[in-house]
Fold this protein.
Amino acid sequence: MIKIFKANEQNLQDMLNIRMEMLGESDNNYSFTESFIKSTEDFFKTANHSTMLAYNDENIIGCATMCYFNALPTSSCQTNKRCYLMNLYTKKDFRKQGIASTMLYMLIDEAKENGVSEILLNTDGHGIGLFKKYGFVNSENTIILNFSELLKKNIADFEKYGCHIHKCGC
């Protein structure tokens, strides 16, 4: 029997396990350092988030996380309350059964109750139909600076364009 519910700290190990499984499935070369695992654990313990877990009997089969944050209001987003959808995942044998849809619905419903005016997400292309079914639309005005990619570049490349990188003790 499938059960879906909001996770709490008692479900911490299952949240960690299903997240690592999801990341491993999407990137076979992913290495989980102790620091990465600790940061993930700290997030689940302290961050302002909601995580839904799906179980088949006693076995975890899916997860979805909504991270809450505040941002300046805009003309299209009248409150400062926003959230970021992450980790919508169902194990392969349980896909196309409405599990991801149910977890997404539960998170959207909770976000509405909390006065959130915008939900953001990134996708690798999977689930686009599901997201559009719930009213998500593509955004053409978002660009991202990925610090891990930036740090791979040689600082001299930036300096030749007149950019200077300063490190501070903060």
In short: The longest strand covers residues 59-70. The chain has a mean pLDDT of 83.
